[in-house]
Specification:
The protein is of the alpha/beta class. Helix content is 40%, strand content 15%. It has a seven-stranded mixed β-sheet with strand order 5-4-3-6-7-9-8, with helices on both faces.
Length: 279
């Protein structure tokens, strides 16, 4: 196959898998009914939801597809394996391509994987480029986010833990999602548990790509402390929620200031940012 034709096929393949992982333009027109935690509606709906679930039923609402929101990762897909949107997957693709071309040493990791879509995409990129040496790590509690521990004032009042029904995806389900795309193999490994417990002891020597999607200050700072020292020079740090969640942004800013990290932060979209480690 000619080089240009092969490049066209690869581009089409990656475009298709990104659209599949995000369900871009072919998601369900319905969304689960999920009242905002802490509201009266949420407290009233909770027992109803449990009752319906016991019969294999769920209340849904109509939600017309918004392509602009899906591109930017601003909506909550009903069935997609990732909610980061097309632009942040494009960023992962560019970073992976760069570290592979320049042979930056190290594995890839995402901390906070939800349904696994972004790490599935990382594995697909390695497979496409014929890289058989690197490992893709999927780190998550697989039971949602923790209640604020009180150790970090920035997390006071954080309510992500109340979305456990929607954010908690079992490791078995994530593995099944990998298998659906034929991406579950020995180059994929899972770190199951709270980041403070799993990441410091993780058997990772070096990283070329570090992607954080922990939402909270605690989840973000725990991942940075354990993993950023392992990021190779020339590798990339990607922060999913820097532009959207103040406690995540504060954790990143605190860590960068404490460790004199001066590489410029680059915006991906309204939420995600990244920088390349230079020293």
């Amino acid at each position: 196959m000619a080089t240009s034709a092969r490049a066209d096929v690869n581009t089409l393949y990656l475009d298709l898998i990104k659209r599949c992982l995000t369900r871009y333009r072919f998601d369900s027109p319905y969304r689960p009914l999920a009242p905002r935690p802490g509201t009266l509606k949420a407290s009233l709906y909770k027992p109803v939801r449990r009752l319906l679930a016991s019969f294999g039923l769920e209340l849904v609402r109509q939600a017309p597809f918004n392509p602009a929101a899906r591109e930017q990762g601003l909506d909550w897909p009903a069935a997609a394996e990732t909610m980061v949107g097309l632009r942040r997957l494009d960023n992962v693709q560019r970073c992976v391509k760069d570290v592979l071309q320049r042979r930056v040493p190290g594995d890839f990791i995402e901390t906070g994987v939800w349904r696994g879509g972004t790490v599935i995409f990382m594995r697909a990129l390695l497979k496409l480029h014929g890289d058989t040496d690197r490992v893709v790590w999927a780190a998550d509690s697989f039971q949602g986010l923790p209640k604020p521990s009180g150790a970090y004032p920035a997390d006071a009042g954080d309510r992500h833990w109340e979305y456990s029904t929607d954010l908690a995806v079992s490791v078995e389900q994530v593995k099944a999602n990998f298998a659906r795309y034929d991406m579950l193999d020995d180059q994929v490994r899972f770190l199951v548990g709270w980041f403070s417990e799993t990441l410091p002891a993780a058997p990772i020597e070096r990283l070329a790509l570090l992607r954080l999607d922990g939402d909270m200050y605690e989840s973000t700072i725990d991942a940075l402390r354990a993993l950023y020292p392992k990021l190779s020079v020339g590798g990339y740090a990607i922060i999913d929620d820097y532009g959207a969640l103040p406690n995540c942004r504060r954790a990143v800013d605190d860590y960068r200031r404490q460790h004199d990290i001066s590489e410029p932060i680059q915006a991906i979209d309204g939420s995600g940012v990244y920088w390349q480690r230079e020293r």
